[in-house]
Each structure stands twice: as C-alpha cells, then as structure tokens.
Amino acid sequence: MEHVKFTEMKQGDAEDYEFLHPLEVEYAKEVGERIFDSLSDLESSFSGYQISRLGHSVQSATRAWRDGADVDWVVCALLHDIGDVQAPYNHGEYAALVMEPFMREQCVWTTQVHADFQKYYYAHKVGGDQNTRDKFRDHIYFDDCVDFCELWDQASFDPAYDDLPLEFFRPLVMEVFSREPYDPDVLRPGAREPLVNDAVAAQRKQAA
Ligand SMILES: [Fe+2]
Ligand SMILES: [Fe+2]
C-alpha cells in the first residue's frame, strides 16, 4: 500500500487509517528538525533593528546558555519569536503552542505572554501602557517572565555581542522535541526553575 484508497475521509476504512498512523508518528518525530530549520526564516522577518530576528533569537539563547539556564530555558530563548513570521499579531501564543507538548509549563507560559512584558521597555515611549504586564501580576510565573525579558529578550539587539553559532543549539532543540509529548515529568505544572544558575554558568564558561 503506497497511499490510502479514499478521496474523502469518511470513505476511509480501518486499513487506510492503520496505514496512516505510523506515517504520522514518523513525521511527528522529525518536528525538531523542521523547527530548527524554520529558524532561518527569521533572518529576513524584520527590518529596522541593528540585528535580524534570527540574530536576536540566537543572542537571547546565547545569553541564557551563559547564564547557566537549563535546556528548556535556552530553547525557549531561541524559539520565543518564531511566530513573528506567520503570526505577527500573536507571535508569543504561536510559539507557545509549538512548545507546549514538549517543554516545561513555566517556559511555555513565559513565551506565550512575553510580548506584553516587553512593553515595559517601550510602550510608554509611544503613547502605550508600559504596565500591560500587570494584568498577570498574581501569576506564579510573573517574576520569571520579568527576568526573561530583562536578562535575555530586551537585551539581545546588540550587533557587537559575541553570539554562539546557531548550530550550537541544534542538539538542544533536538533533545527537547524528541521527548515524549505531554510527558508530565517534562511539563511539570507549577515548577519553577531558575533562569540564572551561577554554578552551571561558571562550568560552561570554563568549558568554552
Ligand atoms: Fe517577541
Ligand atoms: Fe524577542
């Protein structure tokens, strides 16, 4: 069997759907590769800044790595703006949906709402509300998103910064997206891991 017999799904029989299932599982396994490759689309997504959106993403991830952040945080920093290409009005939500089956809830939530937290740095300068983020003030991950923006997101527009190469992050992306989807031991609702781990940061600095 090379393909299903049906032309409308309602015509499909058990043989058709049993044939499709392993193909879908196999395709889903390669999602990490596809996501990593799609990062190149960020190279041309925005103009006007001193670095590209891809440069900003790599710089955010580099800072996270050098701060000793764990793999979820580093991949979160790398992917937080992937929605800019196809979802410019809700790019955080877009990226969060991509991450949701494979990453800690803390990082997914931070990604989902980071655009409102970024407003703290510019909205009041153009007549907007700097404190849009305050609607999340009581959320368990509020402080984490504040730190994410302060340490990595708003800080990563510097063409002179010594970024790690994009390829450095490929194995980390593969690690995350080869996890069992929706594994409770990965999602860990309510768990808060630090963005900065000085001991790990020192180890990585020594190994570099
Ligand atoms: Fe963003
Ligand atoms: Fe960003």
Task: Describe the protein.
The chain is mainly α. It has one domain: Hypothetical protein af1432. The longest helix has 16 residues. The chain is built from ten helices and no strands. The structure holds fe (ii) ion (2 copies).
Task: Give the arrangement of secondary structure elements.
Layout: H1 14-29, H2 31-38, H3 53-66, H4 71-79, H5 91-99, H6 105-118, H7 142-153, H8 170-177, H9 184-187, H10 198-207
Bound molecules: fe (ii) ion (2 copies).
One fe (ii) ion binds at residues 56, 80-81, 153.
Comma- or semicolon-separated keywords:
Hypothetical protein af1432; mainly alpha; 208 residues
Bound molecules: fe (ii) ion
Tally of separate helices: 10
Q: Please give the number of β-strands.
A: 0
Number of domains: 1
CATH superfamily: Hypothetical protein af1432
User: Would you tell me the structural class of the helices and strands?
Assistant: mainly alpha
**CATH class label:** Mainly Alpha
Overall 3D shape: globular
> Could you name the ranges where pLDDT drops below 50 across 5 or more consecutive residues?
none
Order of helices and strands: HHHHHHHHHH
- Cα-based radius of gyration, to the nearest Å: 19 Å
Please tell me the overall pLDDT: 97
Q: Helical amount among residues, as a percent range?
A: 40-55%
Proper CATH architecture: Orthogonal Bundle
**Alpha-carbon distance between the termini?**
51 Å
Instruction: Find the CATH topology.
Output: Hypothetical protein af1432
Biggest sheet record: none
The percentage of residues in β strands lies in under 5%
